[in-house]
Specification:
By secondary structure, the protein is mainly α. It contains 5 helices and no strands. The protein has a domain of about 90 residues.
Length: about 130
């Protein structure tokens, strides 16, 4: 007789976004540990990560008010990704300005966050 594996509970959108928030919190903690007189990049990282945490947290609040149906999940994720991609686009435009170093740093964090959201929620939710 073979034993069946118990079915894993499906993660809600809130659960998935909490994974992204946890990753950003870890990045924030690492950036705080790097602050010193010579490292301005750590401060740029902290400010930018805080902005990204706000966007993700807002999506969690919207998800909490929803019924977590596939169309609602897709709408929430699409809106979040739209916001993040607009931010990414704005940062790319700033690469040719005086704040290019900061913009490059912010761009790499934003691009990684978009990848994290896509990895956690899956492509099928974005397409739903």
């Amino acid at each position: 007789m073979t034993r069946k594996k118990p079915l894993e509970a499906e993660m809600t959108l809130i659960d998935e976004l909490v994974v992204v928030l946890a990753t950003l919190a870890a990045q924030m903690s690492a950036a705080v540990a790097e602050i010193n007189d010579a490292n301005v990049g750590a401060v740029v990282s902290i400010r930018h990560i805080a902005r990204l945490i706000t966007y993700i947290s807002n999506s969690v609040a919207v998800a909490k008010a929803s019924n977590d149906t596939p169309p609602e999940r897709a709408r929430i994720v699409s809106s979040l990704l739209s916001t993040l991609r607009q931010l990414e686009s704005d940062e790319r435009m700033q690469l040719d300005t005086r704040r290019a170093v900061s913009a490059q740093h912010e761009l790499s964090i934003t691009t990684a966050t978009i990848a994290q959201v896509l990895a956690v929620v899956g492509d099928e939710e974005v397409a739903a």
